[in-house]
Amino acid sequence: MNIIRPALLAAVLAMPLQAYAETPADLLVVAQNIDDIVAIDPAQAYEFTSGELVTNVYDRLVQYDAADTTALAAGLAESWEIDAENKAITFTLRDGATFHSGNPVRPEDVVFSLSRVVQLNLTPAFILTQLGWTPENVAEMITAGEGNTVTVRYDGDFSPAFVMNVLAARPASIVDEQTVMANEVDGDMGNAWLNANSAGSGPFSLRMFRPAEMIRLEANADYFNGAPAIEGVIIRHVAESATQQLLLEQGDVDMARNLTPDQIAGLDTDAITVETFPQAAVHFLSFNQADEELTDPAVWEAARYLVNYEGMVDTFLAGQMEVHQAFWPDGFPGALNDTPYSYDPARAAQILADAGVETPINVTLDVINAAPFTDMAQSLQASFAEAGINFEILPGTGSQVITRYRERSHEAMLLYWGPDFMDPHSNAKAFAYNSNNDQDAYAATTTWRNSWAVPAEMNEETMAALTETDPARREEMYLDLQRQVQENSPIVIMFQAAYQVAMSNDVTGYVNGATSDFVYYRLVEKAE
After folding, report:
1. Coil, strand, or helix at residue 497?
2. How far apart are CA 138 and CA 112, in angstroms?
3. pTM, to two decimals
4. Ordered domains of the chain (ranges, CATH)
């Protein structure tokens, strides 16, 4: 692999936008809006773009990878032994793995990294503290053992699969203790330094980070999973989608990450490829069960046949969403991808009539006052009216809509939900569990917010799935929960978000999984 000459890199970065129309052969140049980044320290990073950076620069004990974003694979740990009875997992680190500094990856680095997240207690720490870890007990819960081993203990009735998915989440990234602590200031455990630099072992190292300007990644030739196919990635901050399109069409960048559907539709497909990737957010319509008119299961069933799914995704939602009717997103292990419901207003009207439901039913529908949500609401308003369910659309800002949702003061709600990490319990608890429906028992779930007292059997199955040790049995339980919510709940899941990326036809191997944590440049190649 050739090394990029500093003079060449400097020349590339210094060129005005119109000065060249071909990117360097060994560099991927990306136009992207990156001004969402607040932090890049894995213990603090919680934004979309920072998640992408962390994934490409750091490794975890176990992780999802570019080769298959749906399979949990070995990361810095080459093997592990699970002791479900004693709630402990012992990991054996792979030999020869090194950080970008050249320091070897040691069990002490793993202990330090996981403990550091808990001790700093910044935004994403809650993902790890689910395992019962606290600043007071974390030293006992994560320990280095004999040889190249680390034992992780957890406190709670969890399936080992759940624990493994927690350990594959972003804040579980392993950092180089020696490098980080050499840059500690005033007891911050290197936090300030890591928000401008990196100390990882991943396929790329961070060579330069200029907030709201540029990210420069350099290939790690010694990466344990094989060196990246390209020498580096330059992500240029380009806020305007129109400018991104112009740069891509001129050949000044290889990839544009934030084009609108209209821009995508107007691209020259002879020179530019557009790929669509399902994303984690599922979009749903829900009915507040505090409103007696909305409690009849016939209303829920009829609603499933009153959504013009294909009509929306074939028109104004083209490229932005795909039909998906279960709470766990496609692209994640255990997703139910059956779509048994289609637009059939005559059938919906018959369901209501057979159940003796009196129409018309007049319902207010809260919606975020922005595209495509207002367009979706208008489509629902038209299609539901055909069966005598009349929506009065109440648009509001995101904060206004979510506040009403949390207060349970809405009647019907059009919103979306995404998991915090890649384990189906993250969404099952939101869509299939509500053990206390009292007004003062607030829970950040769609079930509680819609005043739906989930049947006891479903609550029990949700918690049983969390503790199930047999992976195959656990997956089947989550599939069953998805079917139950899909068939008989006041929550009508309609779509899964999709994300379109436009790139030069010379580019292959780009991987964009269902979340920002699954954006990978390791396999990217550029044709000569």
Report:
1. strand
2. 10
3. 0.87
4. 6-257+505-526 (3.40.190.10), 278-498 (3.10.105.10)
